[in-house]
Amino acid sequence: MTARNAIVERRGIRQKAARLFGQWGVFFRGFLEHPKMVGSIIPSSRFTIEKMLAPVDWERCEVFVEYGPGVGTFCQPVLDRLRRDGTLIVIDTNPLYIDYLQKHFGDSRFHAVHGSAADVEQIVRAIGHDGADYVLSGLPFSTLPEGVGPAIAKATYDVIRPGGAFLVYQFSAKARDFMAKHFKRIDSGFEPLNVLPCQLFWGWKD
Questions:
Q1: Rounded (to 5) percent helix, strand, coil in the chain
Q2: What's the CATH code of the domain at 53?
Q3: With contact defined as beta carbons under 8 Å apart, do 113 and 54 qualify?
Q4: Band (29; pLDDT cuts 50, 70, 90)
Q5: Most buried residue among 38, 73, 127, 147 by CB atoms closer than 10 A?
Q6: Is 112:88 a contact under the CB 8 Å cutoff?
Q7: pLDDT band at residue 14, thresholds of 50, 70 and 90?
Q8: Cis omega before residue 196 (within 30°)?
Q9: For the range 21-28, what are the long-range contacts, defined as Cβ-Cβ under 8 Å and sequence gap of 24 or more?
Q10: If pLDDT is split at 50, 70 and 90, which confidence band does 3 have?
Q11: % of the chain residues with pLDDT over 70
């Protein structure tokens, strides 16, 4: 290996490390600033991602929404599966995450919105759609301020089109209690290969 090639290789390693620790740094800072709004200090595992997204009918999915995207752990896997004319809308109350995501994802299908999941109907309409096919959430329902969880569950049910689903991954079953008031059919799962192991729920709108 020539000296020039060695320099280029080391520079590439440094750039990859900077991207990795930059992402983790943003995630950890967001957790420190708003611990009650971040479900975990560690991003979801690839096993959780695969299992959570498995039931999605990507051929019919026009609009996919995610609450609390953090640094985008689910975003690229969703974009990789989403059809070319689809839309991914992510909503977060932390401007730090929204700023990071807007800089990181250049896909024209991607929209990062600073706002509350309880306002999902207005946000989806503002982007030009009348509803969503799937909504994904990793929000910690057990630690949300009083009244926020039920409001999010209702707004989510209202925005989802018939045949769609509310996809939720949690460390507790609290979210299921809120979901059950609106979704008649809720499928459950569990993913042990995650930090921490998490419960999975899919609430379907008939």
A1: 45, 25, 35
A2: 3.40.50.150
A3: no
A4: low
A5: 38
A6: no
A7: very low
A8: yes
A9: 23/71, 23/100, 24/71, 26/71, 26/96, 26/97, 26/100, 27/70, 27/71
A10: low
A11: 80
Q: Where do we find the tokens 């301020």?
A: 145
Written as six digits, the tokens of 27 are 């995630």
Instruction: Report residue 180 as tokens.
Output: 């059950």
The whole-angstrom separation of Cα 204 and Cα 206 is 6
pLDDT value at residue 10: 43
Tokens for 187?
């499928």
With tokens 């991602």, the residue in question is 49
- Does pTM surpass 0.85? no
Q: What is the pLDDT of residues 45-103, one digit of tens each?
A: 999 999 999 999 999 999 999 999 988 999 999 999 999 999 999 999 989 889 999 99
φ, ψ dihedrals at 21, nearest 5°: -70, -25
Tokens of 105: 């994802």
**Sheet strands (E) in the chain:** 63-67, 87-92, 110-114, 132-137, 160-170, 185-191, 198-204
Q: In total, how many domains does the chain have?
A: 1
Written as six digits, the tokens of 20 are: 């990795």
**Residue 200 domain boundaries:** 3-204
> Residue 89 and residue 11: Cα distance in Å, rounded?
34
**What CA–CA distance (Å, rounded) separates 189 from 169?**
9
